[in-house]
Amino acid sequence: MKTFKYLILIIASVITTACSLEETPNGFLNEENFYQTASDAESAILYTYAVLPEQGYFSRYYYYVAHCPTEEFTQKSDAEAGQHELDGYITTNTTADLAIVFRHFYLSINRTFPIIEKVPSIAMDENYKNHILGEAHFLRAFNYYNLVRLFGEVPLRKEVMTDFNSAGLDLASIQDIYAYILEDLQTAITLMDSQYRYGRANKTAAQGLLANVHLFLASASESGLAGYSFTDAAGNYNLAKQYAGEVVNGQSQFRLDTDIQNIFDPVQNLNPAFSPEHIFSIVASRGVLGPTELMSLLSTPFVQTGFTLTPDQGGHTIDFGWDHVIVETPFYESFDASDRRKELLFMTEYLDADGNLVNTNNNRPYTLKYLDANRSGGEESGNKIPIVRYSEVLLTYAEACGNTTEGINALNQIRSRANLGTYSTSDFASDAAFRDAVIQERAWELAYEFNRLYDLRRSGKMEQILASAPYNKTLTNAIYFFDIPFEEIDRNPNLN
Amino acid sequence: MKEMKLLFKLTLILVLFTGFSSVMAQSYEITGLVKGADGEVLPGVNVILKGTTTGVATDFDGNYSINVDDLQGTLVFSYLGYVTQEIEINGNTAINVVMDEDQQTLSEIVVIGYGAVKKSDLTGSVSSLKADRLEETPSSSVDALLQGKVAGVQVTQTSGEPGAGVTVRIRGLSSREGSNSPLYVIDGFPYGDAGNLKQLNPNDIVSMEVLKDASAAAIYGSRGANGVIIITTKSGKNNQRAKFEIKTQTGVQIVDHGRLNLISDPLTFATLSNEVRENDTRNVDPLYVGAVDQSTGVYYPSLTEIASGSWGINTYWPDVVLNEAITQNVNIGITGGDENTAYAVSGNIFDQTGVLIGNDYQNFTFRGRLDQKTRGSFKYGTNLALSYVKRNKTQSGFGIGRSPLTPVFNPDGTYYVNGAGDFFNPVMLANEVTDISNEYDVNAVTYIEWEIIKNLNLRAQSGINLGHAIGDYYEPRTTSSGNIFNGLGIINNYTGYTFLNEGYFTYKNTFKEKHDFSAMVGYSSEQRQVRTSQLRGEGFVNDVLKNEALNSATTRKLDNNLQKQVLQSFISRITYSYDDRYLLTLSGRYDGSSKFGKLNKYGFFPSGAIAWKLHNEKFMESFNVLSQLKLRTSFGYSGNQAIPPYGTLNQFGARQYFVGQVLISGYGPYQNGNPALQWETTSQLDFGIDLGFLNNRIELSADYYKKESTDLLRKKRLPFSSGFDDVWINGGEILNTGYEVALSGTVINGKDFGWDISGTLSHNENEVVNIGEEGVGEGLRTGGYIESFRDYPTRWRNGQPMNIIVGYKVDGIVQSLAEGQEAGLVGDEAIAGEFKYVDISGPDGTPDGIINDLDRTVIGNTQPDFLIGFDTQFRYKNFDFSAQFYGSIGNDIVAIKKFEGQRSLNRWTVDNPTNEWPSLRGGRLNKISDWWIEDGSFLRVSNVTLGYNLPSETISGIQSLRLYVTGTNLYTFTKFSGADPEIEGGVDYGTYPKYRTFTLGLNLTL
Q: Among all residues of chain B, which has the CA nearest to that of A489?
């Protein structure tokens, strides 16, 4: 009996420690415990925005992808292979940079699905709720717009993946992708308000982006870009004019900034309200734990501590950079000598640590659009990266209007601010000639703002501009559409 | 002690009394002292007059006294574990005896997990390593000491940094993204992955058992796939008076400067530096031209200035960076026990200075063990181990290749730096950077053992393993990060614990003399929790307080994490042997893990083994020379669950976004969970043979195995368009086949002279049978990203061994631009002095005149064909000498340091149009090619020891005294050009310098 008692005692002490094998989340959230409050809704939309300033997107690889295959940037010789391939127009489906951005577009898209599905049932201020939903539609459209412009036909995911065994999707036609983009942007315009929230989009941004989409469709159709025969030029120019017009004439919150330097002020990068031109700019901020956002380093010269801009250019500190992407000198020289954008937004000299005026490294010009003079925390830089800028919408409006008084006026606003001569309708023989001039103006005005590659592609001018003097580039592969990355084909059972 | 002694004397009196009763009037008293071969006195040895019942036992001091009728006859001395001796009295009244330990190793007990068996009864592949003199090789942890000792076990020590871990692999690699390290079990407590067992002092080890095949390892179920290493620590002996053991070691580490491969001549250094920059196609100017360099503001002397000697600075950096490194190791142990209590207590201090300045390591371990028998049939005890490790790390090694033309200090005593961007003055790094970790570990286990009825035993044990570590880090303004942040301070906290609770019944019996049967059944549960946190401050007023006032930083950052996991298991084993000829073992473990999906929480891991002791068969009786011939075979399953928890759940990601004044955390979909996730399973088939000759004076053991790992735990890469990156799944297959041989023998066993040898040989072939659906052509990239190649060095490809090297084949050096372009090269890669590559293939499978990715092929295998270990020991009277060798044969190394230092002098130049070496060109983006691959085979004289044992009678009170000198890592035979061929993963990134160690040791037993 005693034996039995001991036995029970020992066995009980061993067994009672048995505990559940059920795994419960610790220190992380998932759909079980989220999307319940207004803060959750806001957090969910900010997570969607948060992809944009990542290195895999705007603050590094998309910067390469959008600018190396144009006349704007080349890169240092020991840059990664991907940048050489982009710059040399020899990209393939294994070009790493393209895979990186491709992935980030979908990361952002994927974060919109649960918002659109779950936020409507959250009890919160209806106006703000609708705005958040509008932002989700806006961001989804924005990412698909980047995808379709870079790659053409891509998988069109419309809902969150629930079973990884059926993760494969077919390529959707360009037409279907645009239908989805246009629907999203129209929904966004209906849902969003016009309040300016720093680093976030509002109704004006959606109108500006929608105008840009219609402009792309119009000129792609006009130039006969492959896959764009489903749409027409005139209708889209009209719609572009309509939506751009709402930004240009229909509101007063955003306008041209008379001071060009102010738009890209290297110390005001993180100031919420400093230039009326930023309709929607994404924000790469300093001081985030995790992946660093290093936009400012890429096009900043490698100099030692103590070097500064000249007083004319603001006199700010130039923290050492990487000299990674390099302004192509012929492009710098294509600016008119009196162009203030050349004078103020490029650097060819600086002051060394002893205050002597010296030429920049190897006498190269450097763009000042993304210099962060207050960069702290090493590689983390704070930058405002314009997605929808007032001058861009104004130029879209001009191009959509064609060679008309409205169009000329819009273009002239930009030119006068840059200290350049103005045009009249008689200067252009046709709408086409006028539009060519606007596209050239966009190259100067919107340089390094993720614009030029798309302008050249939609207007069918890649070879005409880049393969001729003074650029004389050899265009080999993937000129109007990049290849779908190998990783996608390899992992997507519907594509391999 | 007093009571014990009293008790003992009473017994003695009783024995004597019974002795007296049979004594006639005239009797003689024979007295003497009994000792072991090592000089230690042996209490409790039975001394019996042969053929009678007259007998006594030796007392605590090994003395005995026996009364006999006459001085004829024979005395029989017997003691467990020692060879019984018969000594004729021959008229002597004083007979001292030295007992030899039983060399019949087959009677050794081998621990196999939840039990122990006689070595001769093993059915699985288990290698047993006794700790004799293991500790004489100075080492902070026991892992490294396994190297070369056990067939089939690969131990790689990649870094010479004090306290650095090693990698341990048993029978090849078998997991893709899970762990490949065997499980350590210390005194029944699963410690986790092998590699850095800092908590255990090698002096405390009695034996290590390496469970290699499935039959042996399956008892550890879901953690057995990579093999299991069971460590048994010292315990006290009953009826033994306190034995004090003092062991000290003092070692010195010496770096071979020849292996550092530096250019220390200033003129050569400057000439090469200029050449690199002159050849740079990016228009960079040479530095050593007697002018101030614009980008750094530093004056560089011209070559003439250097040649004439007027520059005057010539720093030999190894003398600055390398230390006279000393290791001190002091160990004190006490063991003993009375009739019912046995105890073992030990303490160890290990203090090693790194060979690099600013680097040292201290390890304090304490261990106490108490075993108590009680009335009735209970036995209980406790085992407590404490350890404290302090590491002082450094980055000063980076400074070893600095320019000899720069000084250490400025004339004013401040650190010299090469312009504002130079943060790498090694003396500054060593003195100014704080990088210290303090690690505290406690392992406490209590057990109770109870013989419920005869032959039926229950053992229950509970224990906790608690580890706590704090990392202190500070970079002042003089360093790279410190400069950026105006001081960077970090405190890292880690607390992990494992709570173990288990119990098992063991039944053992022999039926009808010929049927030996045993059964074990039990339950085990284990909970593990790891909590980490980081406090980080950036920007301090000055560097005075270092990381002690993080709250005063301008930017403060926090990070924390918690992980929990639970393992719940049912275990059982049955053994049966018939007539000591046929043996059978069946075992199974039913394991449940929290890491796996709802449907697959539990996995069953069965195994079976049979063995046939041919030498016990009648028909073998005539083969006298063969003392053992055992054939064994086993098959079974074991698992791997070594992945991070929460793979079954959807996990949201977090990232902050700046909305004006503040950053707000965003949350959303990030990681997709797989509710069907389950174990990785390894099935293993093993055939083995154990041979013993001449009464097992020579033993040979050989095994062939085939190990197939399926359902590999891996991250399935999802299409980008899914919006997710990957998900943990089971898929893929890896095959390891191989054989291993262990041989040991006593060549000479004379009274004064003896010679023993032993050796191991293993061969493993590894094949990635199927690695999943993606990366089929390109292969899965592995190894660390190499910046100078902008590539990953190794790949996994189906049908190839893991971590093969894929790259181009070099076809000489380009001698002219035309030749380069002809060879399909473009841009900078076509100019003279560049590599020329073989045009292997094009898009349509034939050479296309263009050198691109399609021209890459398999160019090397990072896994060795053979691993060998060899050990030889001589003794002559009181001297002994031993030497150990270790080697790896047939593995390739990506020598990314091949074109550095002295070797860069071979460079291509216009005057030296070699076809073997490229030019020195700054800005070259290297391609991985066979040019960078070297044969990594080596044979190392890993240890040589000369010892002297003082004869035991020499000094009274001292049972034994041993003095020895040991040289470790004395010489390496290799063709590899890098610093050291012992490299993990096949890529020589250039590690912490390796060194020779010379150690003087003293072992004293009181």
A: B719
B244-276: pLDDT as tens digits: 999 999 999 999 888 888 898 999 999 999 999
Average confidence (pLDDT) over A128-154: 98
Rounded to whole angstroms, the Cα distance separating A346 from A72 reads 12
Enumerate the residues of chain A whose CB falls inside 8 A of the CB of residue B448. Answer: 10
Assess if residue B515 is contained within a domain.
Answer: no
pLDDT tens string B742-765: 999 999 988 889 999 999 999 999
> A258 and A300 share a domain?
no
User: For residues B398 and A167, which has the higher predicted lDDT (pLDDT)?
Assistant: A167
Find the CB nearest A114 among B502, B649, B669: B669
Structure tokens at B30: 């024979």
Contacts of A157 in chain B (CB under 8 A): 721-723
Q: Is residue A5 part of a domain?
A: no
What is the average pLDDT score of chain A?
91
Whether residues B720 and A99 touch (CB distance < 8 A) is answered with yes
Q: Test A377 with B555 for CB contact under 8 angstroms.
A: yes
B644/A contact by beta carbon, under 8 A: no
> Do A94 and A240 reside in the same domain of the chain?
yes
pLDDT digits (tens, 9 = 90+) for A275-285: 899 999 988 77
CATH number of the domain residue A92 falls in? 1.25.40.390
Q: What's this model's pTM, rounded to 2 decimal places?
A: 0.84
> Could you tell me the maximum CA-CA distance found in chain B, to the nearest angstrom?
116
Q: Are residues A200 and A326 in the same domain?
A: no
Asked if the Cβ–Cβ distance from A10 to B448 is below 8 Å, we say: yes
A488:B503 CB<8 A: no
**Secondary structure of B543-570 as H, E, C letters:** CCCHHHHHHHCCEEEEEEEEEEEEEEEE
Q: Is the pLDDT of residue B9 over 60?
A: no
> Does any CB of chain A come closer than 8 Å to the CB of residue B492?
no
Indicate whether B780 and B917 sit together in one domain: yes
pLDDT of residue B558 exceeding 70, the answer is yes
Same domain, B136 and B22: no
Residue A76 within any structural domain of the chain: yes
The tokens for B89 are 């009295």
Q: Which residues of chain A make contact with B722, given a CB cutoff of 8 A? A: 106, 110, 157, 161, 164, 167, 169
- Extract the tokens encoding A19: 């505990």
Closest Cα partner for B383 from B551, B166, B232? B232
Q: What is the share, in percent, of chain B residues with pLDDT greater than 90? A: 50
Q: Which domain holds residue B27?
A: 2-99
Calculate mean pLDDT across residues B501-506: 93
Nearest CA in chain A to B726: A164
- Identify from A128, A164, A356 which residue to disrupt to test chain B contact, counting B C-beta atoms within 10 A and taking the largest count: A164
Q: Which domain does A362 fall in, by range?
A: 296-383
B811 lies in some domain: yes
- DSSP per-residue codes, B79-102: -TTB--EEEE-TT-SB--EEEPB-
Question: Do the Cβ atoms of B93 and B70 come closer than 8 Å?
Answer: no
In this structure, the dihedral spanned by the alpha carbons of residues B214, B219, B222 and B226, taken in order and rounded to 10 degrees, is -40
B470 burial type by CB count under 10 A (0-12 exposed, 13-18 middle, 19+ buried): middle
Tell me which of A7, A19, A30, A84 to substitute to probe the interface with B (most B C-beta atoms closer than 10 Å). A30
- Sign for the pseudo-dihedral over CA of B573, B574, B577, B582: negative
Residues of A within 8 A of B483 (CB-CB) are 305
Rounded percentage of chain B residues whose pLDDT exceeds 70: 95
Query: Which chain A residue's Cα is nearest to B596?
Result: A23
Interface probe, candidates A5, A28, A483, A488, chain B, greatest B C-beta count within 10 A: A28
